[in-house]
Amino acid sequence: MSASRKPSKCGPRKSGVRLTSRDRRVIGEIARYGAISRGQLMELGFFSSVSRANRRLRLLVEGKFLRRTFVATGPQQNSTIYVLGPAGVDVAVEDNSFDPIEMKRHGRRSPERMYLEHHLGVVSIRLVAIRESSDLRLLRYIAEPDCRHEYEVVVRGRVIKRLMKPDALAVFAHGDSMLSVYIEFDRGNTSLPQMAALFARYEAYWAETAYQSAYETDIPFTVALVTTAGRRRIDNLSRLTRRAAVSVTFTTFAQLESKGFGAAIWKSAKTEEFSTLWDPLPEGGGP
DNA sequence: TGACGACAATGTGACTGATC
DNA sequence: GATCAGTCACATTGTCGTCA
Description:
By secondary structure, the protein is of the alpha+beta class. Helices cover 39% and strands 28% of the residues. The longest helix is centred in the middle third of the chain and has 19 residues, at 113-131. 30% of the residues are buried. It binds a DNA duplex through residues 1-6, 8-10, 18, 20, 38, 48-52, 54-56, 58, 74-80.
């Protein structure tokens, strides 16, 4: 038999690797989140076998679709992290409506520790949301490239461009209500003035009705800031939001990971008590 | 159209090496 | 010894082209 295989549905080989549909989804996911560990890829359901994951990911690295780096998870332990490679940029742009310039920047970027840890944190928060076992049910988890929003406003006759770039947007169902939660992952290394500017951007996003236009809703969103720092950081940050016109609430990553989104672990500037995300649910019509 | 063979992808388990 | 990451061998499965 002269077996010259026809091009499979997986598409043509690139750099010696025949990309499967799963490969393309893995590349898209890594492009979406910036960096993902092998364990996270497995937890997201891309692989059910460690060896299979290793072998397939190694092929993608050899084909320059991905790059591999390491983050210390303990004194003598490393976690393998995958980021977008130069060949993966084209695949990610081809399969998704990602900004090619932004993707090329990702593909070239040197994987600095802080950059990696931030992105891994956002994926970890997504996994917590997926595992959620309370009354909250995750409907969508929209990563940064998909929820970033460039819009224009007119201020004193001048057109000003604004960019809203949350870490993620999680949409939960709670009973008959929907809860839109912008996720911000904080590692405690951003200055308070920078954080104040971040909260101000969310206020403007609501006040300038850009959010309402983008998502065709009048139901206000909540900003949930998850920090790897401790209670003092939460107190400092919540003081910045005392007069905020949008709902901003805080918790630690440790609390979130152990108790989940639905637990009474959220602290706002309005109260000393920890409460749930939906208590009270934002009133319809505006904050 | 169905059988067959080639090829690629997959999962499992065993193994190695590094570290605590 | 326990744990973790990575690799390898092997059997299985799925896809696809060829041919009767």
